[in-house]
Fold this protein.
Amino acid sequence: MNAALRAIVRTALNFGHTIYGIKHGYEGLINDDMEPLNAGSVSNIIKYGGTVIQTARSPAFLTPEGRQKAYENIKKRNISSLIVIGGDGSFHGLHELILEHGIQGIGVPGTIDNDLYGTDFTIGFDTAVNTALDAIDKIRDTATSHSRLFIIEVMGHTSGYIALYTGVGGGAEDIIIPESPVDLSKIWARLNMGRARGKKSSIIVVAEGERTGGAAAVKAHIEKYSDWEVKVSILGHIQRGGAPSAFDRFLASRLGYEAVFAVMRNETDKMVGIVDKAVTLTPLAETWTKKKDLDLSYLAMNDILSS
Ligand code: F6P
């Protein structure tokens, strides 16, 4: 998010605009907690995770009254347009604000879940996958030394993107994601086959949103039908922090830059994205109503690669 913020601020200043950083997301709009940013305000932030202007989940902004207060502060400060970096929750809020008060608004896709329609990748996804991979590589050492099976749960809300990319990249023996039905008996049969051919360890990556009951349920099932020693590891919030990857810094820089151009072209109620290397604008409502494709053939590929 910092890389996107830097790009937005520097591009807007380049074209002579005044730009405010709103603190704590929509909470800052409601509480009039914002400050003008200059080129120096965003110096050297590109290499840091998180966001220097901070963010928050804002229950108040879910209400028309909260959005009315936010709009009054926007008017008071003569703000003409909003650029919101976030996921579907942030975009829902922006869409409502635009409908109710006619403010101009553009979304920039920032979520580790990569679940927004209208862009191949969202800011943060690549870094999260790399962090999860680093953890899996380390866990693999224990798994191999002790001949254990590890079930590793990764984030992603209701999307299996992080699990799929992490699983393939980490050589996971199986990947369980919400987008695909799970056949647990197939999973333990494959584990036993792997062991019979001399495998010393196995890893199953499970998406937090999968539907069989999470890592604990998968562990219980496998322990019932095999004699594997099973350990569960839930990676959690380490996936949301740390220095952003080169890919994410480039993506965020490009999207932030393009978001300012979208504002200057008087676009509104749209998300800026990149699809097949080209910059796209997608109506905000489509980013959550249309389903982003996740290529399930990668699961079959992984079955072969990890056999
Ligand atoms: O939507 C992004 C995400 O990181 C999900 O992958 C995860 O389930 C959730 O946010 C965690 O949110 P919080 O930090 O509020 O618990």
Residues 125-146 form the longest helix (22 residues). The chain has a mean pLDDT of 96.
